[in-house]
Amino acid sequence: MELRLAIGKDGLGIELNRTARMACIDVTEIAVVVPGVRFPLDVSGGVSRFRHRRGELRRLGIEIDARSLERWATPKLRGIVSTESPSVWIATRRDAATVGITSREGDVVLAFDVTLDTHEDDVRLTVAHARGMALSAPATTLAIGAMRAVLGDRATREGSRFTVARAAAGIARALLPEAGARAPSCSGIRWTMTSAAADAWLLVASDGPQADVVEEAARARESATLTKDGDDARAAGDLSRARALDLAAMDRAPRHPALAARVAEIDALAGGRAEAAIAVMNEADVEPGAARGPLVAELIAESGDASGAIAAFARIGDTEPVPVLAARCFERAAMLAEDHHDALVWLDLAVARAPAVARIRWTRASRRLASGRIDDAIADLEHVEAIAEGARAKYGVWRRAGEMWRAAGLASDSATLFERALRYVPDDPEALAGLGAALVDDALGMTSPGTKSGATSRALSPRAERRATRGAALLARAIELGEARGDDVSAMTLDLSRALADGLGDRPAAIARARAVPNGARGAILARALEGRWRAAVGDVAGASLAWARARDLASTRFEGATGEHDPRDAEAAARLLVEAAEFERETRGDFPSAQRHLASALRLRPRDGEIERAYRDVCARLAPPPLDDRADVMEPKTSIPSALPTTTSLAPMSIPESLAPEDEARLASRVEDLTRMLQGDPTRDDVVDELTALLVRLGRSLELFALLSGRLEDASPERRAKLIPAQRAVLTRLEQDARDAGRESEASLFRDARLALD
Fold first, then answer.
1. Which of 78, 328, 473, 508 is the most buried (most CB within 10 A)?
2. pTM over 0.90
3. CA dihedral 423, 425, 429, 435 (to 10 degrees)
4. Which of 442, 451, 380 is nearest to 416 (CA)?
5. 154's torsion region: left (phi>0), alpha (psi -120 to 50) or beta?
């Protein structure tokens, strides 16, 4: 920074020779008067000649450019909307600015306004109209945190209001000593002008009258006074107390929009309070010129009014000044629209507002793909590729696109997209596997990875055979590379098994590959099912039956009792495979009990599927009805476990029909859950144990029964043990027999040893 001497009617002064930078602030003017100087005066030494003289600050001018502020604030805002440094957008106006903070992926957006007013030499910044989308905390909480991160210890906070004390004096006393002058006296200095021009704030401090406060800043100041206590609790993370304080403040200022918005954003984050939050927002007054944000639209969508939510998102997108947030509002409207044409209209508006947000491009590409506009979808992804930085990011774009195209059944185009990905990372296992699977799908003319193959290999044209062979080779190479890196290659192995069976007709090798997929893999159920299908095709009927049984066990373990923890489409696919297993047992082996077990498991996964229910009833009709005795095992009629326990309990007994219809089985399973909760609440209830034991026997849930009885035996009295041991011996006999039937000899030996230990 350079200073110069100035001689005028007020005497000798020191001025700024050129604009100086302090953090994100450009200091455009400093005027200091050196008192007590008489003329004539020797000024040949320049500023350094008067460095020991303390001057008086008469004028200071600063300019805060929005672009400079964005760059300076970005690293300080890490952790507000994501763990990475966000994208920051700022637009200024007279005594106010709008701030947008967006995660790098564009999925999380925080927006808020900051108003400026001054008092003497103090600058006061107030957070107002906080809003956003996909936020992890209330928008106001995050906006206050963002301002605190930017200002640091330069400002003190009261609620949503930040005060930078003696700002002009602080700037002058920081800059002048660096340039070789003494820090000036700043008595009588106040901010006399605040304005905006060319996307920058302009502030001037002098000894003139205080700058006026504009209406927007005055409104924000009054709102901050009302919300102070709630905002302090909110900033401390105590949202319950913040909500209570906001409601108390609404008694003093009914229908205040800032208080209503703060209450509604807490309710929206809590979930399940959509109607209450909407009522609070609708009853509040509308603040002129204030951005309401997408909160109301999200609440309307949560309440189930899709058309109303679409209209609300569209209105907000039209008026929202932050481009990314406006684009996300249009994107949400598109996601709620059922018609592809309407969705694409909203997405076109979204892309127009934020053309550089990759997320929105992906959403539009997906919709365009679904509506058959393939070339337009590719054009969107080419824009995403241009936005991506680095070879690895560009590779990720085309690999994801290849997977999307393959899922849509466009195998040939999918192969082309995977080839684009390999241009950037030639030896990546996932892209190689995707290309190989796409080539196989294209050769077979398949529309989805789960398409059922025929009993014999289909005739392929020479070109298709070459593509299938090449695809299998690429999959094998991908597995080698993946194993070398320690990656999970189960999905690749499953694709290779399909290529070997359906493309090359080598079912024995395909069976070996499918068998190598571990039980913990996501595709394990499909792998066991395909193994069963292919074993049946090569004549290994017994091996096929065992493979189908393993598929059923995996489906039961993964999906039953795990509501909300899995994709419903996976459960539906597993149910369809179990229906195929039942068809195999019934038509090929004539084993109706096994078919019944498969269909019972399928029905537990899809309890309202009429086709499965009809198949289950048909199989039940072919079986002899089980005995009425409580010891019958309806789900597994080939073997029954004799129960030594009385079935009458103090609880209301549940009537057991001769044959369990699907709805009866569901009723019994619900009763089991109720009894389990009772036992967890009071482990001393032997009557609950007795009823639970009888129901688990009927439902064929032997492992659960074994676990229940084992736990009860540990602390049982001698009289109680005498009643429990026969039932435990019976269930161990059953488990041993099931393990032997499935070919698991080591497991059967363990159950036998446990049974003998009871004797």
1. 328
2. no
3. -10
4. 442
5. alpha
Segment 217-263, tens digit of pLDDT: 999 999 999 999 999 999 999 999 999 999 999 999 999 999 999 99
Cα–Cα distance between 70 and 219 in angstroms, integer? 26
Taking residues 466-487, report their average pLDDT: 92
Question: pLDDT tens-digit profile of 152-168?
Answer: 999 999 999 999 999 99
Query: Which residues partner with 123 through β-bridges?
Result: 118, 164
| pLDDT per residue as tens digits for the range 485-494 | 999 999 999 9
Asked if residues 304 and 321 have their Cβ atoms less than 8 Å apart, the reply is: no
Q: Which of 200, 22, 23, 204 is nearest to 97 (CA)?
A: 200
* DSSP code string of 70-111: HHHHGGGGTTSSSSS--EEEEEEETTEEEEEEE-TTS--EEE
Nearest to 80 by CA among 160, 36, 142, 133: 142
Please state, in angstroms and as integers, the Cα–Cα distance from residue 578 to each residue in 37, 547, 597, 615, following that order.
100, 11, 9, 11
Of 126, 289, 96, nearest in space to 194 by CA: 96
Residue with tokens 């129901």: 695
CB atoms closer than 10 angstroms to residue 680: 8
Give the chain's end-to-end CA distance (angstroms, integer).
95
Residue 113 has, within 13 A of its CA and on its CB side, a CA count of 23
Cα gap 575→664, rounded to integer Å: 19
Residues 6+ away with beta carbon under 8 Å from 223: 126, 128, 256, 258
Separation of alpha carbons 693 and 140, rounded Å: 54
Rounded alpha-carbon distances, angstroms, from residue 506 to 30, 442, 469, 535: 85, 18, 11, 12
Measured from the Cβ of residue 16, the count of other Cβ atoms closer than 10 Å reads: 21
Extract the tokens encoding 517. 């997929």
Neighbours of 254 (CB within 10 A): 12
- Compute the distance between CA of residue 115 and CA of residue 125 in angstroms, rounded to an integer: 6
Tokens, residue 7: 């001689």
Helix, strand counts (H, E) of the chain: 29, 13
The tokens describing 180, both together, are: 């070789």
